[in-house]
Inverse folding.
């Protein structure tokens, strides 16, 4: 199917997302939160909101535009995600998101779509903005440009040991739990569908689930467990992750408030998240 380039630059109508504390807790469980992180799991303590929850209210608006590109949705994978927060997220509320396709880029066999979103509260205050990189496998070769390079916020210093290392196993059911927060792509649940689109090993873990683990690990490794201090984060999903894999997050404090990150799968000793960073409040 040919991509519809006319959608580039057009802004979506505002969409609303109403959530309660149970949605916040379900998300936290979906990205692996444990009982020692009770602030994120118990309404008696708020609950506090892990900042990567931001991908949940913006997801429907982003994906609605992706669906309008004309590409084959069965061949979609999430390539990268950036979030920057201007304010802490409340444990419940109503949010309003608008989305815009920034561009569609040609990488020979792949097509890359960048979608920018802005999410506000009902008073019009911007809470966060995000950029999603969506990859259509097999949709490249349409004669478009490649994506412009963006400035790197933080890079891993060569030959320097990480300042923290967090290791955590995901469960075989991790994707089935995470998908209840809104990403219902059968690639993460149905073995037959996964095999049909080239993943014979079985359904993948959502890139955004690995992303959430990364943000939790930054909170543990750099913020004394207080995830609300994490104000921005970006990751490129460089390799697939399967439910049950053990994730290892390493972080380097490269400047005040800036952390370079890498996430690997222990069993295969390979990086699955690259070009990653987080910013934290003092």
């Amino acid at each position: 199917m040919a991509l519809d380039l006319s959608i580039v630059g057009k802004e979506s109508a505002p969409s609303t997302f109403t959530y309660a504390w149970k949605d916040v807790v379900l998300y936290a469980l979906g990205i692996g939160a444990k009982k020692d992180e009770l602030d994120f799991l118990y309404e008696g303590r708020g609950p506090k909101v892990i900042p990567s929850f931001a991908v949940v209210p913006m997801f429907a608006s982003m994906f609605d535009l992706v669906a309008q590109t004309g590409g084959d949705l069965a061949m979609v994978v999430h390539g990268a995600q950036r979030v920057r927060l201007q304010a802490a997220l409340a444990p419940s509320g109503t949010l309003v998101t608008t989305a815009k396709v920034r561009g569609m880029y040609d990488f020979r066999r792949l097509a890359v779509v960048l979608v920018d979103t802005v999410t506000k509260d009902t008073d019009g205050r911007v809470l966060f903005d995000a950029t999603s990189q969506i990859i259509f496998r097999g949709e490249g070769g349409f004669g478009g440009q490649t994506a412009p390079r963006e400035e790197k916020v933080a890079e891993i210093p060569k030959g320097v040991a990480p300042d923290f290392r967090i290791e955590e196993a995901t469960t075989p059911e991790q994707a089935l739990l995470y998908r209840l927060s809104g990403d219902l792509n059968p690639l993460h649940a149905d073995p037959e569908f996964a095999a049909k689109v080239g993943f014979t090993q079985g359904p993948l873990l959502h890139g955004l689930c690995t992303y959430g683990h990364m943000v939790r690990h930054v909170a543990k490794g750099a913020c004394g467990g207080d995830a609300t201090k994490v104000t921005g984060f970006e990751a490129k999903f460089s390799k697939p992750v399967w439910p049950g894999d053990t994730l290892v997050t390493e972080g380097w404090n490269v400047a005040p408030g800036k952390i370079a990150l890498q996430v690997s799968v222990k069993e295969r000793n390979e990086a699955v998240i690259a070009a990653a960073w987080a910013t934290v409040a003092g």
